[in-house]
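Figure S7 source data.
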Amino acid sequence: MRWWPALQTLFKRPTPAFRLMNGADAAQAASLHSASFARGWTEVELSRLITDPNVEANALVSQHTLAAFILSRIAADEAEVLTIAVDPAWRKQGLGRQLLANHLARLAGRRVMALFLEVEDENKAARTLYARSGFEQVGERQAYYARPDGTRGHALVLRRPID
Ligand SMILES: CC(C)(COP(=O)(O)OP(=O)(O)OC[C@H]1O[C@@H](n2cnc3c(N)ncnc32)[C@H](O)[C@@H]1OP(=O)(O)O)[C@@H](O)C(=O)NCCC(=O)NCCS
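Tokens for the predicted coenzyme A complex:
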């Protein structure tokens, strides 16, 4: 069937490209964040963070649509991931790893020596992503996350040196 490859080409989404975020991304970031976390952040909250000069805000964008984004706050020569989310339609295709790799390069350019983050111990997707990206556990916070069902989840504190 000759029409099938043609149809596939027609509907193939272009590979998302890396770029820095700006305030105009806040609305899309809010909807992607809500699709990814039990407590979504508002457009106003995200706009404040994205435009904060101490926050490194990076995205992967396909056809003017955010496929993934990450925000980290920088303090002296360390940074902490505030959030990272990949659009559910784009997950498990290597975007998380690609975004994190680009983000680490940006932080290196800003003379950051180490990146920290917190992850719920039961978040298998995120834990795999971070393990593959060179993060190691340096701490644990018991009953740190409030889950929608009223139970609490443990947080693991991870660190990755940046050279
Ligand atoms: C966590 C998240 C960012 C991963 O993004 P992604 O683009 O799907 O990740 P990648 O495709 O780059 O996968 C990275 C690694 O994790 C693995 N992985 C991804 N999703 C997985 C899942 N659901 N279960 C197990 N492993 C998974 C991949 O196989 C890959 O490992 P590999 O290199 O050995 O193949 C994405 O699932 C997400 O947005 N989740 C909701 C928000 C969230 O939890 N953010 C993290 C908060 S700490």
